[in-house]
């Protein structure tokens, strides 16, 4: 009986030590992310970054996005809901983090669409049809074109523009900035320069609400 009690006590102590270590690790990682964002503010937003919302909105959400990422697809409408609930108060800035295989080509599709003033409609069409053109988490560019019909695009010009050095430069810069900010997964959010304390929609909403409240003071 005594041995059993000692075993239980030891197990509880080990569990508490593990939980304490995990919390300390998460806290240290969160602090490192905040320091990186603070020291590399120029890496958060570039002149070429696609934006949605008023330029002088008091709250800026910077999102590192991979168009082939299922979680990015799930978050996009919820971020739009937050923006709709707070008109002119939130600006969304998209950065690319094409981590899935083939995603860099999809980013090139988006940038080519931007040259025709159709970035946001194409992004939404691609996210809606993501399951079709990204089977097994692998982006396949040849499967996207049918989903862009009816958007008023010059698809032949888009396919030519996708290979431009200008677009390659945008993708390379975003990947470099993601690396600088230690962005290792998508979506990754920064709200007015602050990273999420932990990942999740509620955490994102809480950080946005805090920034909105701060802007009203």
UniProtKB/TrEMBL annotation:
Domain of life assignment: Bacteria
InterPro entries linked: Thioredoxin-like_fold (IPR012336), Thioredoxin-like_sf (IPR036249)
Domain Thioredoxin-like fold intervals: 49-210
Family: Belongs to the thioredoxin family. DsbA subfamily.
PANTHER family the UniProt entry points to: GLUTATHIONE S-TRANSFERASE KAPPA, THIOREDOXIN-LIKE REDUCTASE RV2466C
Protein name (database record): Disulfide bond formation protein DsbA
Organism of origin: Crenobacter cavernae
